[in-house]
């Protein structure tokens, strides 16, 4: 339980200002859209390869 408390304490310290929270949120959204776009691309490419094999 101490490890979880330490993590929460560090996050609270790091994200103590509104500007830092906005920067972190922007970074997280960018990473989310990057991996979401990659996942969609991989799924569509896989479907096209299956059609060519038949």
Question: Explain this structure to me?
Answer:
By secondary structure, the chain is an all-alpha fold. The protein contains 2 helices and no strands. The longest helix is centred in the middle third of the chain and has 36 residues. It is elongated, with a radius of gyration of 19 Å. The termini are far apart. The model has no long low-confidence stretch (mean pLDDT 86).
Elements, N to C (H/E): HH
Low-pLDDT runs of 5+ residues are none
Helix % is over 70%
Which whole number gives the mean pLDDT? 86
Cα gyration radius (Å): 19 Å
Our estimate of the beta-strand percent is under 5%
Strand tally, please?
0
- Main sheet, how many strands, which sense, barrel? none
Shape: elongated
How many helices? Answer: 2
The span between the termini is 54 Å
Helix/strand-derived category reads: mainly alpha
């Amino acid at each position: 339980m101490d490890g979880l408390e330490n993590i929460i304490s560090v996050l609270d310290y790091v994200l103590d200002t509104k500007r830092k929270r906005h920067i972190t949120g922007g970074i997280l959204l960018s990473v989310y859209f990057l991996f979401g776009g990659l996942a969609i691309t991989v799924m569509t490419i896989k479907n096209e390869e299956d059609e060519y094999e038949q």
